[in-house]
Amino acid sequence: MKKEVVVIGAGIAGTCTAVQLALRGHSVTLLDRKSPGRETSYGNAGVIQRDAVEPAGFPQDWGILLRAAFKIGARVSYHGGALPGMVPILARYWSNSRPAPHAAVAKSHSRLIEHCLTEHGALIAMSGADDLIKREGYRYVYRKPETMERQFKRAQRYAREYGVRFSLEDSAAIAALEPALRLPVAGALHWLDAWTVNDPGALVGRYADLLARHGGRVVLGDAETLQQAGKGWRVESDAGRIEAEQAVIAMGPWSADYAKRLGYRFPLIPIRGYHCHYDGPGPALPTVDVDGGYMVSPMQRGSRITTGGEFGHLEAPSTPVQLARAEKLARDLFGLGERVEATPWRGARPCMVDLRPVMGPAPRHPGLWFNFGHAHQGFTLGPVAGRLVAEMMEGGPTFVDPAPYAPARFD
Ligand SMILES: Cc1cc2nc3c(=O)[nH]c(=O)nc-3n(C[C@H](O)[C@H](O)[C@H](O)COP(=O)(O)OP(=O)(O)OC[C@H]3O[C@@H](n4cnc5c(N)ncnc54)[C@H](O)[C@@H]3O)c2cc1C
What we know:
Residues 5-392 form the FAD dependent oxidoreductase domain. By secondary structure, the chain is an alpha/beta fold.
């Protein structure tokens, strides 16, 4: 039966949910306080990471933790004032990231990841977005041979267990492949299956255009006005009042705070990150400087440095110290030029303490659905998550088992 649905949040998760519902003939409104793809889904590194078969968790390596504690390097930082309040949730995150629970989560996570190229591919084709996509993978470069050796073993395991493909490039090969490299490096690991996007926000915009072509509406409004009305939901927008039988909360890192007012306590950790674009030379393929702890991606606006994680409150003022450190390291490595924008962008990865996103029906509110918590791989997983939630909303069989993601696990 065809339904009226309002999807709140026009990042990659919400936009893809809206598209999947519209493709199934439902009447869909996508509502956001900004236009589609202007927040986390705009500012990321743009990698559709087919190789991310195991979720990123809280580091277990004492060397990394000690460096983070003393705020050394560009990889991890934190706001001292926020930390005491975050200790209980970080302790759960750390505990769930230990090898045994992590291995269990990886099983279900890899089943989502294995569909990322097919699901993005279908939407890219339908939305005519091929001009934004490169299908040549991306690289990890290593300054230290021992880091390369360790990660090579992990890559071999991924190839064996999950069938993802990679190649190793030695110091001379990578120097020839990436002429912008100015320092000798130990080597590189090229993940071959990933796709990369030169403007992630624009890709979300194309998916929103696809929604409009299939009868969906994109409107401006605020979730603050969403309320239950009879058997459905009502929200105010610039196009007037919207009444819908079903509503989907896909507000990325803002989802948990919003859900609190409905009585749900979702343990979401916003892991903040920054980016800035640079003119001048840069890598041809998106490249992680593994020992440096940041990434550089070629984008339409220039080379985009994206930083590692910063622990702090979602809306606390920006403290882009990691970006300053990464910028110095990236200038030495690639010879990047000047900053393109005066103020760095800031966003936050919506990470759940159990390393699993929240996808499914709200336990105590009929007609309300959740789709958030996609953490470090939300841009990769948006189309997969959108399809899964749309299929659950239709009540038929789903292409992936949704049980691990049930919102009720936190209720
Ligand atoms: C530095 C960095 C690099 C990353 N790199 C990658 C990568 O290479 N590959 C990858 O797969 N993932 C990457 N990620 C993660 C990825 O970007 C996120 O997981 C993903 O974008 C989350 O999408 P989303 O739709 O859930 O959230 P968002 O894109 O944040 O969308 C949420 C939407 O909700 C809206 N909203 C919030 N509050 C309200 C309100 N009150 N009313 C109405 N609307 C509201 C916002 O305006 C926003 O548009 C990266 C993240 C960061 C920070």
